[in-house]
Amino acid sequence: MTWNEAFETFPVLETARLRLRNLEVTDAPSIFRYFSMDKVMEYYDLETFTSQQQAIDLIEGLLFRYETGRQIRWGITLKDDNVIIGSCGFHALEEQHLKVEIGYDLHPDYWSKGIMTEVIQKVVDFGFRVMELNRIEAFYDPMNIASRKVLEKNGFQYEGTLRKRFLNKGKFVDAVLSSLLREEYLE
């Protein structure tokens, strides 16, 4: 499978504990459940959800961007349960440069259990081995220590802090940039 083949049939991935699958509109209640929590949305570039329709709109947007080859986002479930507990995937795809950004979210009931570390390992492996990426970038808020730690566990290296890089919820915020290169991953 190559870059283009990744967008022909949605790839289902599995880890020891988890299944990563395509999101469906029927997953809206699960996504709304945790996107309606302020602590989940604190560093997210969206406002805390107040209606399930926002979750439907989010999923429909993700599906459209997958169909048009602009994004791939996996829904995370436990292997023995089909309920979405989070998501992870690639956006800001630059095929010419074989570069993507990784993003992720997780229901707080599953924080600090190694879930996201496991997910990122699998998604990064797919990116480098299947899509043959050269570079995977991640941006995170400097105050988001949990995000920094999960990226470091997966080999991402700090590159710098971009001052007032994003407009988030009406104010400009700094963003830390970290990355992982194909050559580093394959070593």
TrEMBL record:
Pfam families: Acetyltransf_3. It is an enzyme of class 2 (transferase). Its EC number is 2.3.1.267. Residues 30-183 form the N-acetyltransferase domain. SUPFAM superfamilies: Acyl-CoA N-acyltransferases (Nat). GO terms for molecular function: protein-N-terminal-alanine acetyltransferase activity. It comes from the Bacteria. Keywords: Acyltransferase, Transferase. The keyword Acyltransferase applies. Coiled coil: none annotated. This is Ribosomal-protein-alanine N-acetyltransferase. It comes from Anoxybacillus andreesenii. The lineage of its organism: Bacteria, Bacillati, Bacillota, Bacilli, Bacillales.
